[in-house]
Amino acid sequence: MLETRGLTVRFGGHVAVNDVSCSFAPGTLTAIVGPNGAGKTTYFNLISGQLKATAGTVLLDGQLLSGQSASARTRAGLGRAFQLTNLFPNLTVLENVRLAVQATREGAHRRGLNLWSIWSDHRALTERADSILAEVALKAKEHATVASLPHGDQRKLEVALLMALEPKVFMFDEPTAGMNAAEAPVILDLIRALKKDGTKTILLVEHKMDVVRELADRIIVLHNGQLVADGEPSEVIASPIVQEAYLGVAKEAA
Ligand SMILES: Nc1ncnc2c1ncn2[C@@H]1O[C@H](COP(=O)(O)OP(=O)(O)OP(=O)(O)O)[C@@H](O)[C@H]1O
Ligand SMILES: [Mg+2]
To answer: Higher-confidence residue: 207 or 21?
Structure first.
């Protein structure tokens, strides 16, 4: 269970995330919606440790993550799609994913300097990396350097690296933004597969309401940094606060 308690961050006089208390259970996909500037990405940054909270705590399975570095939180099981600045631009797609797989299987090399085990580890890592690349439809580009990839493929690679970490919690922030009509379904299929697994905690920031309607088990709404609605998707979408504050429908219809 991922939990935030009273999570708050202040930028000067502006409270971008304001006292957000919320729990996210394994096996559920929660969509986080809200207008531009509502604090969705900032909330993710506070959870993943990219940003230091002014107040409040983050817990994963009862373990306090507040005060820990972003990489310590990753090791604890929090998976945030890598930003491209975290990648090795001059290594190939395959090499990058293999490194991510290797990072999660650090135990393997403690067996010592045994050529057989090094070779078989290497082969297992490559096989796992290959299968992840197949899942995100990047296999054809496996020998391309990251720097040479078009934008859509870079976003797919971000998701591949997230998969490689095998986290307990998957955080997707507008995962299909900037993708073309052929690329977006690949990512949505992956999220569907993660959901089907039934054990992952998935958080999805998404503006496209058709995607939210299809995938979400629950919707929470952030507005001016505050949690203003939380519940079953059809109820939340129909609620006056969402219709007015987010979709702007009520006012237009009136
Ligand atoms: N590092 C920062 N320093 C100062 N202000 C910030 C910082 N990061 C975010 N903000 C402000 O916090 C508010 C919330 O921004 P955030 O990016 O979290 O919104 P969002 O809900 O993700 O919006 P969008 O839907 O456009 O992605 C905005 O007013 C933004 O300008
Ligand atoms: Mg955002």
So the answer is: 21
> Is the distance from the beta carbon of residue 39 to the nearest atom of ligand 1 less than 6 Å?
yes
90 CA distance to ligand 1 centroid (A)? 31
> Per DSSP, which regions of 25-147 are E strands?
28-33, 55-60, 63-64, 78-80
State pTM to two decimals. Answer: 0.89
The answer, yes or no, to whether residue 86 has pLDDT greater than 90, is no
Q: Is the pLDDT of residue 182 over 90?
A: no
Q: Where are the domains of the chain?
A: 1-77+167-254, 89-165
DSSP 82: P
Residues in the chain, total: 254
How many percent of the chain have pLDDT more than 70?
90
Place of tokens 């304001």: 18
CATH class of 1-77+167-254: alpha beta
In the predicted model, is pLDDT for residue 250 greater than 50?
A: no
Which residues have C-beta within 8 Å of that of residue 46, sequence separation ≥ 6? 4, 7, 9, 17, 53, 56, 58
On the 0-12 / 13-18 / 19+ scale of CB atoms within 10 A, 207 is middle
Instruction: Please give the distance, rounded to the nearest whole angstrom, from the Cα atom of residue 39 to the centre of ligand 2.
Output: 7
Ligand 1 pocket test target in 42, 208, 247 with most atoms within 8 Å of CB: 42
Q: Which of 202, 206, 184 is nearest to 193 (CA)?
A: 202
Q: 11 in ligand 1 pocket by Cβ < 6 Å?
A: yes
